[in-house]
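Dear support,

I submitted the protein below through the web form. The confirmation email said the job was done, but the results page showed an empty box. After a refresh the structure appeared. I'm attaching both so you can tell me whether what I see now is the final result or a partial one.
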Amino acid sequence: MQVSAIIPVSSNIMKHFLIALLFLPLISIAQSASPKHTVSEKVNVFLGSSGDHGQMTPAATYPFSMLSIGPQTYPKLHAGYEYKAKTFLGFTHNRFEGVGCQGSGGNILIKPYLGNNPSASALVKTAESAAPGNYQVSFSNKIKAAFTVVEKQGLEHYDFPAGEKGFYFDLKHTLANQFVSEQHEVGGQSISGYIEAKTTCNVGTYKIYYYITIDKPVKWADSANHKLTATLDASESNAEIRVSFSSVDVAHAKSALDKREFVQMQTASTRGWDEVLNHIYVKGDAEREKLFYSLLYRTMQSPYVISEKDGSYRATDGSLQHSKETMYNGWAIWDNYRTQLPLLAIALPERYKGITASISNLYAFGKKDYATQHEPSNTVRTEHAIVVLLDAYRKGFKVDFKGICDSLIKDVDRLDYSHPEKALESSYDAWALSQILKVLKKDDLSARYLKKAAEYKTYWKKDFEDVTRRDVDQVSARGLYQGTILQYRWFAPFDLKGLIELMGGDAAYIRQLDHFFENDQYNHANEPDIQAPYMYNASSQPFKSQALVHKLAVDTVVQYYFNDNSRGIDPFIDRIYKNKPDAYIRTMDDDAGANSAWFVFAACGFSPACVGSPVYYLNVPLFPTVSFAWPDGKVFHIATKNYSDQHPYISKVMLNGKILDRTWITHEEIMKGGQLVITASEKPSETGVKNTWVSDMRK
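What the results page shows now:
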């Protein structure tokens, strides 16, 4: 079967791709080097923005930007917006997309108004549209607003009808996170200062500096309660506001502003999004392509760039630092360390160098499980950062383990083993530390922490072996965090060999996995068991994972568990991933790209086997053609022969023209570039059964 492909995001990449094709007879060029449409045009930014189905918004933003200009609606969801709401309270300038605790951010609310009383001027939506980096809305009172963002600066354009008008500023506005303090200075047509607010779940505190200018003369009125008005001349029919953020100081925020016109900023924002999205090319069903890029878009919003052009940035202790690498902050590592972060390591390795350095910096300047009191941006949580660093190191990224060794040990020594799931998760970190200490040739210490990690078996036998107890299907039973005993008992990613032995061997392991999935005990609405669908790959029946991943990604599923109950009596019966505002399972947050990245990996045909080990399990991709392209000209192409949605099983695998008798692949094999050809089948096969990859804490 002939498989067609295109990949090109630049002429240089296209050149290397064409050279590679000379040695890949199964592939032909189907389109020219320049895509007819920009990839960003396929993104639906309204996906997951209604109800408790993702907690996302259509806010205008830029890849990994701490600035996000979006609508504040009534009623609102976690990120400040509800797709079905018509009443707008104004527009805010940051938010953490897809997270819980009812959201965080929502700083600097600006409301355009008519008349002389902002509270009496209602904003009722009549139309809206949006695309990556851009958002536009019209109101019944004839006010129109449009926004675009490039890096950490944004441009807001407002059209007004005749009459009195102005802007209302609320500098203490937040979402569910608490306001802490602010200072501002008004001068002519500008306002600048800083805002401090609590991080997600009100644990730590972040501080952002800003500089805002209005392009028309205004009269300021300061109410002295963090709220101001800027009155425009009644004759003005439009006005533009430029806003810039910085984690360093007001001077850096001010210097980032430029004079580009709105259309130029829009173009630059679109170009920025296409640059990152084009690293992965898929070709297949047109509607599924739109879903894919809409979800890929969500994986590239955080962490946030916090460093300036001159290399300056604020560390998590508030100190001013400098780095040659681009530095990031804004973590949801517990949520996305198994999906979104590994995806960025492959798709955007040049950025991931800075992300790795930034996570390492947490240990150098102050790391808390959630957040410190001096965060340079909004953030969520950092558990399992040590696992991410081990994973990055084994994938070829530089990590200064020697410089942070003492902090790594201190962090692991204070881990919590008091609850059943905490014991399993803490054991994972202890294992990661043992592997890092081995790198540092601290063999005795390494052995000590490996022994500590092995204690997960004792905890597992105590709380997870017996599944006949009455509370095993109850969310939060025995102090569990957002999961059940039945879901957490699969969490031993670093030692599936040991877990299989605990369960009684391969046959018993398969039986228990079968029972788990056949009885709909799995919960895709949260992350505790998000790795479980891939766990048949460690058994003699890897084909069951292939079928299961396909079903969860694109087929109808039954889900009994939500984040606000135990085994519900009213199950969710539908596809999990839909390209619509109510996209996900009820109560399923996207969690900073975690759940979007799960789909992206499944769509590409491989997913991390164990974070901390540079290995991926294979499945049949959701497209006939998938390609990764990198700035160095290398291309990794995945072609599926005999492709069909009714063919979820792998019958044959070839890598660079040679048979690959396994259903897993290494990070190095992917990043070298080349061609992976997967032959799909309607029925299960024995492919890879004799050459499985099973994590083993002793190796």
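Response: this is the final, complete result; the empty box was a page-load delay. The longest strand covers residues 205-214.
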